[in-house]
């Protein structure tokens, strides 16, 4: 190999024609160090795949998968790790990074075709199928024992905020998850309407039927001047006049609110001065108006969409048509762990729902919220791409078998690289088997055999500890999750291959 000799002699002398020092081995070293760093992360994550896996540790790649599909975040890192391992071996055999990169792109294109061919179309009206997908997603979570409660809740939430006939995606901002400490996960509930964690400011009015709801963005308190100033009051009569004016000013505002027919008032949080003075609260209380203050700015849009109200920026605009209407607005007590304000029976409801997540401690609530989010994302995937695919390592083994066949139709280095790509995909079934306590080698061999004979749905049944038809076991996932995991992992690996230097 004259090339190899030339390279070694060049790196030994270390000088090129210009006399500047140039290290020929550096790009190769950089590549290997990047690959080994990424592999270390992937190996750490491997132990958390599947229902029996340890808990999660994720990286940028899984963030991308989370945004695109919302599930399969562990799989995408494990696949990337296995592909990097293949790259390492191919590079050591002297194959150029560009050839590897292009072959991997060919392999992933073919892979997407294979996945699409083995998927089954799904109708959004088929509730049972949607429930199975949500349940599969929840199986690998800490709160998996509550999947019978959380899965239907997630399906119902998504179906309420979309029109199944025309929807092409789901805006998850229309599903508000409210975390409330106390109780257990069994107390989680789906509320058609609005739920606020803020307390009612005037406790004497805690239930209003036939509610007319106003949302104000101005302050019910004495006005302040633009610049700091001091008023020196020399006698009591002047003092009295100041207080009388203040009282008249606030009373006038409150009367105007009452005149518009408002009986529930939401007040946006103010940073400049008190959004609600004690005097204003006193008047509102007398007029039997329920007051909820400290509404966060980012919640305004959701509130308006849910109850059909419009935010009011000035008292002059406080008119009956700006108000939203609802059957009932009440403050409900949660068995000793605080209170929530619920608005139900909205007259012109927007397509929004609220999910109240309960839990005995912060960790449980965070985990429940994350799990519900993943289940919602799985159903969103089915709305985006209405097809299902088997889980349990079946798609990966099918890909490995079909890509190995495909590699035989190619020639030269490409065939070699595509073959390495197909072998790398076996990491998912092998890891699933390992984490379920099965023998990975014999399990993957049997799986490969079943798929080669045309049994596309054969996968690892973690519950029974063997291989079975995964579709019959109802272990399913959206097609988008698998396609997204495969394409994102490949893109990441191709990006890492392109890095040949690091600027210190």
UniProtKB/TrEMBL annotation:
Annotated localization: Cytoplasm
Domain of life where this protein originates: Eukaryota
InterPro entries according to UniProt: Chap_CCT_delta, Chaperone_TCP-1, Chaperonin_TCP-1_CS, Cpn60/GroEL/TCP-1, GroEL-like_apical_dom_sf, GROEL-like_equatorial_sf, TCP-1-like_intermed_sf, TCP-1_chaperonin
Keyword DNA damage: no
GO molecular function term, any single one: ATP binding
SUPFAM superfamilies: GroEL apical domain-like (SSF52029), GroEL equatorial domain-like (SSF48592), GroEL-intermediate domain like (SSF54849)
Keywords, alphabetical: ATP-binding, Chaperone, Cytoplasm, Nucleotide-binding
Pfam families: Cpn60_TCP1
Gene Ontology annotations for the cellular component aspect, listed alphabetically: chaperonin-containing T-complex
Region annotation Disordered: where it falls in the sequence: 1-26
Biased composition annotated in UniProt, kind: Polar residues: 1-15
Principal location: cytoplasm
Family stated for the protein in its record: Belongs to the TCP-1 chaperonin family.
UniProt-listed NCBIfam families: chap_CCT_delta, thermosome_beta
Name of the molecule in the record: T-complex protein 1 subunit delta
Source organism phylogeny: Eukaryota, Metazoa, Chordata, Craniata, Vertebrata
């Amino acid at each position: 190999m004259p090339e190899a000799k030339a390279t070694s002699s060049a790196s030994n002398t270390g000088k090129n024609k210009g006399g500047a020092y140039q290290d020929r081995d550096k790009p190769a070293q950089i590549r290997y160090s990047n690959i080994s760093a990424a592999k270390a992360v992937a190996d750490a994550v491997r132990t958390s795949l599947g229902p029996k896996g340890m808990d999660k540790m994720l990286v940028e790649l899984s963030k991308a998968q989370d945004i695109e599909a919302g599930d399969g975040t562990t799989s995408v890192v494990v696949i990337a790790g296995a592909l990097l391992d293949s790259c390492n071996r191919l590079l050591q055999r002297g194959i150029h990074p560009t050839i590897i990169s292009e072959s991997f792109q060919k392999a992933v294109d073919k892979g997407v075709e294979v996945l699409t061919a083995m998927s089954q179309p799904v109708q959004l009206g088929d509730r049972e199928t949607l429930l199975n997908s949500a349940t599969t997603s929840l199986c690998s979570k800490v709160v998996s024992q509550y999947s019978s409660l959380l899965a239907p809740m997630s399906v119902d939430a998504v179906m309420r905020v979309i029109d199944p006939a025309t929807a092409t995606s789901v805006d998850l901002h229309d599903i508000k998850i409210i975390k409330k400490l106390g109780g257990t996960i069994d107390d989680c509930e789906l509320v058609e309407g609005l739920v606020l964690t803020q307390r009612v400011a005037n406790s004497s009015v805690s239930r209003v039927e036939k509610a007319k709801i106003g949302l104000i963005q101005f302050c019910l308190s004495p006005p302040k001047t633009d610049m700091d100033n001091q008023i020196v009051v020399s006698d009591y009569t002047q003092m009295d006049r100041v207080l009388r004016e203040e009282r008249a000013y606030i009373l006038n505002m409150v009367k105007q609110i009452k005149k518009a027919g408002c009986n529930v008032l939401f007040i946006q949080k103010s940073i400049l001065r008190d959004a609600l003075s004690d005097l204003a609260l006193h008047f509102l209380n007398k007029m039997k108006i329920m007051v909820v203050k400290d509404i966060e700015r980012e919640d305004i849009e959701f509130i308006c969409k849910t109850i059909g109200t419009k935010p009011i920026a000035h008292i002059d605009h406080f008119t009956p048509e700006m108000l939203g209407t609802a059957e009932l607005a009440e403050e409900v007590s949660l068995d000793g762990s605080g209170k929530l304000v619920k608005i139900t029976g909205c007259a012109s409801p927007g397509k929004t729902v609220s999910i109240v997540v309960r839990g005995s401690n912060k960790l449980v609530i965070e985990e429940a919220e994350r799990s519900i989010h993943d289940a919602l994302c799985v159903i969103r995937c089915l709305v985006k791409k209405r097809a299902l695919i088997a889980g349990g390592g079946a798609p990966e083994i099918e890909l490995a078998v079909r890509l190995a066949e495909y590699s035989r139709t190619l020639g030269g280095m490409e065939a070699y690289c595509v073959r390495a790509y197909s072998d790398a995909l076996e990491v998912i079934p092998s890891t699933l088997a390992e984490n379920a306590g099965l023998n990975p080698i014999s399990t993957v061999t049997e799986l490969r055999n079943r798929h080669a004979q045309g049994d596309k749905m054969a996968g690892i049944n973690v519950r029974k500890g063997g291989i079975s038809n995964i579709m019959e076991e109802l272990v399913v996932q959206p097609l988008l999750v698998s396609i997204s995991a495969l394409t994102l992992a490949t893109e990441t690996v191709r990006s890492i291959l392109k890095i040949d230097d690091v600027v210190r």
